[in-house]
Batch of 2 targets.
Target 1
Amino acid sequence: MEQTLALVKPDAFARKDEVVLKVVSAGFTVEKSAELQLTPARAAQFYAEHAGKPFLDDLCNFMCSGRVLAMVLSKEGAIKAWRELMGPTDSVAARSTAPDSMRALFGTDKQKNACHGSDSPEAAAREIAFFFPPSGEIPDLATGAAQAAPME
Ligand code: IDP
């Protein structure tokens, strides 16, 4: 069964239970979940592929502005299915083109768009390991990986 990494971003964290209900209704299994607070260093590491883009600093600040819910979701074709359920990046556009999507329902704009989803099998593997390191792995304190542990 394919797995993907889903995040409920800080702007939608207060509505995470509604998001999870829709995730389960859409046939995904929540294999793992953790609520955590990203540090600036961890956010920059997570979004390393966007290095140099003008919105990166703002994006990292936003991602550190509150807690996130990280989940490993599984389903046949989970990567594509979760991106479809999330909807397009811009929540404003999503409200006209995909009104039932997570970003239309729970997001605000192009940055505060409620959710993240891996965009390829390679990204899913990397992002799942980022938030849920294999057991026995020693957390990299220098990069703040220990922050990925669920909070009380
Ligand atoms: P995706 O999350 O739909 O895959 P990406 O292009 O990978 O979109 O961008 C990652 C995240 O960066 C988006 O989800 C959004 O929060 C933010 N972002 C993308 N483009 C912009 C922009 O033009 N302005 C502000 N934030 C943006």
Target 2
Amino acid sequence: MTDPEPKDDTTADDRRGAFSAWVPGEAGVLPRGVAQQARARLDRMRTSGRPAADPSVGAGTRQDAPAELPAATLAAATRVVGAGLAPPEQGRPFLEGPTFAAPFHAAGELSDAPYYYGRMGNPGFEAYERALGALDGGHAVVFASGMAAAAAVLLRLLGPGDLLVAPTDGYPGVVHIAKEHLAMRGVGVRLVPTDDQAIRRAAKGASLVWIESPANPGLQRLELEETIAACRRAGARVAVDNTLATPLRQRPLELGADLVVSSDSKHLTGHSDLVLGHVSTGDEEIADQLRQWRTLVGSIPGPFEVWLAHRSLATLDVRLQRQEEVAAAVHAALRDREDVSDVRYPGFSSVVGFDLGSPRRARAFLAALDVVVEATSFGGIHSSAERRDRFGDGQVTPGYVRLSAGIESPDDVVADVLRALDLSS
Ligand code: PLP
């Protein structure tokens, strides 16, 4: 037996009435009652500053926002998704769009205006800094690039009579600043390889020890906690370049470091579409000094870059996991090859290093790649590789290739690398 046809008892007048009960609202067309209730709820929220109870819900039912879970109980994968976002507000986006402003409206005294000029501050910077600070465990200051962040620490915190210990085999920009700008200001510079014992010995009498672990491009890894502790016992501040690890794999402030420096142009943002950097520190006074330095020299990022970075940060955990899967597969495949030597992988993150014996073979290998693109930098979603010694820093052998694993299929990347190795041998 089939159900009887539902009978339409409404009259034409009823139907006209039902139609006229739909009214234009801010989000399109809403039934009249719903629009009115939503607007009343929004007004109550605006005056009370928090989500209001819905009077249409039975007595005793609470619609208040639940108490926030303590961040420490949440996995990094969860924290990175919501890091730095403002509390939910009815009708607002999850991540506010970029604020493009040189001057802001700012009448009266400057203290009456939260923002008055773009070089001093911008709401987008603050949201991104909240996110980075929460992940690093400190106060974050965003800069126009990783080098602007490094320069702020080196030039603002060191002066005549100070001594810097810096790695000979880390990102070379730090050594360039030390040799070309710190030395002439009376700052002593002691250069050491990325090696625990060498750093601990050099820390005696130092004002600041600059550490990179894992180091770029050689991928050396330190016993970070012990080495930081030894440097601090020697009376030095410690800054750790955490670019390769990201706060999801290593949090130097928790390991005792005074400062964390990062090129956010790499994994942290991961889409190879922007240049950015930051410093985090547990010391609010140092954070203020760095922020004032940024204002003075104008090493501020653009609002759109910061917004792109904040948007990209949410996917850091999934990107990193896939990149590590690809990197581990490439590492395993390379270790089995007799025509590849000195295969390196720090055990996390995206970068694999290996030696192809000569610049000629390295160039032939790079030219034969198809899925993996030839490019500098690392940490992006596209697998890439380069002969690192083409920069002429002398930090690695002439046939050393640095490969950055992307988020493609591990099988496709491994097949591409093996094919290119065969073609270039
Ligand atoms: N630190 C490391 C480890 C780097 O690899 C880089 C750049 O490659 C930097 C700092 C400098 O960062 P940026 O290029 O964002 O200025």
